[in-house]
Structure formats: structure tokens, C-alpha cells
Amino acid sequence: MDKFLHDHPSQPRTKNEKQAVINRLKRIEGQVRGIQKMVEDDRYCIDILVQISAIQSALKNVGFNITERHINHCVRDAIKQGEGKETIEELMSVLKQFSK
Fold this sequence. Notes:
This protein is mainly α and 100 residues long. The chain contains three helices and no strands. Helix 1 packs antiparallel against helix 2 and helix 2 runs antiparallel to helix 3. The protein is elongated and about 55 Å long. It starts with 14 loop residues before the first helix and ends with a helix.
């Protein structure tokens, strides 16, 4: 794994921001458990695939939310401090992985 510039956000998430992300991830976790049950119950493949697609979409949306926050706080702060180029390169590296 690449070494990133920072190991913590320049502006920590608020309690509400953390809770919103955690709530979304818990819903996704429940959906994954639901798919496990569908497999155990020998449910129709298409039904399982639809649920997998829903989970992928939900995870992608969580990722976009975190990316947006990162741009609005961490990247903006880095640009102000003269570290914009490195921070943008770091973000682009992660976005390339995200889009695979």
C-alpha cells in the first residue's frame, strides 16, 4: 500500500458526520448478512445479484460522501498550506483504485 501524506483528517469529522457514515455502513453490513441468508436459502441467483448491485451502489455512495468531505476540508487546507499538488496526487491515486 502506498504511503499517504496524512494519517488523520486536517479537520476531524463531527460527531454527526461520524454517526451518519457509521449508520450507512451498518445498513450495508445488514444487507451483506441478508445476501448470506439468501445464499443459505438457495434463493434465485438474479435476486442475489440485484442485492449485490445495491450494496455496491451503497458503498460507492459512502465513498463519494467521504471523497467530497476530503476535498472540502483536507484538500482545501492542503492547498492553502502550499501542499496542494501532493494532496491532489494522493487523492487521484486513491480515486484510480476506487474506479477499478
